[in-house]
Write a structure and sequence with these properties.
Length: 185
């Protein structure tokens, strides 16, 4: 059975989980860089070796934070370590739709089993990648993004509605219209 100090740490950890990035915890010991990295494909690495235990990856993902300066950290109630992220920290590996038209709701499951519905708080977006490629993403929590896996992006594109006027084609989700990026002719 955990002692009182261990229980206090567990309670603080649970209270800190999922808080927005602006909710900084006081008195956290910064431990620097310990060799953690998230690859472009969503694989987590420790000192160059992939972390093969899904439960451990999910635990780390639950304490991942994005600072206002764009730096990523794993933050617990007692310590903070930096982590290198190539692209987005998560990958949306599954999408499903409820409803249709403006009432449509698109939900995504990430490689760490977070589930998020695209809406005003969790927008869909698009970045321009290397060589002009389009990189679609959905904001999961606290500014952390999940890049849509290629099959998921194709599913999303198949749901596109044509514009009614000067707008670009896009999709509805959670009462918000998300336009696709302009294409060059």
């Amino acid at each position: 059975m955990p002692d009182q100090d261990e229980r206090d740490v567990l309670v603080a950890f649970e209270e800190a989980r999922g808080k927005p990035r602006s909710a900084a915890l006081p008195n956290i010991n910064f431990c620097g860089d310990i060799g953690l990295k998230i690859g472009r494909d969503g694989t987590w690495y420790y000192q160059g070796s992939p972390i093969l235990r899904p439960g451990l990856v999910k635990l780390f993902a639950s304490v991942l934070r994005l600072e206002d300066d764009g730096a990523y950290f794993l933050v617990t109630p007692v310590e903070k370590v930096s982590i290198e992220v190539e692209g987005a920290p998560f990958v949306a590996v599954e999408m499903w739709r409820e409803g249709s038209g403006e009432a449509q709701r698109l939900s995504f499951r990430t490689n760490v089993d977070d589930v998020v519905a695209a809406d005003g708080e969790h927008p869909l977006g698009f970045e321009t990648g290397p060589r002009g490629s389009v990189i679609p993403f959905v904001v999961v929590r606290g500014g952390l993004r999940a890049r849509l896996a290629r099959p998921v992006y194709y599913e999303l594109a198949a749901l596109a509605v044509e514009p009614q006027g000067p707008e670009r084609a896009g999709v509805w989700s959670g009462g918000v219209f998300f336009p696709f990026p302009a294409t060059s002719s």
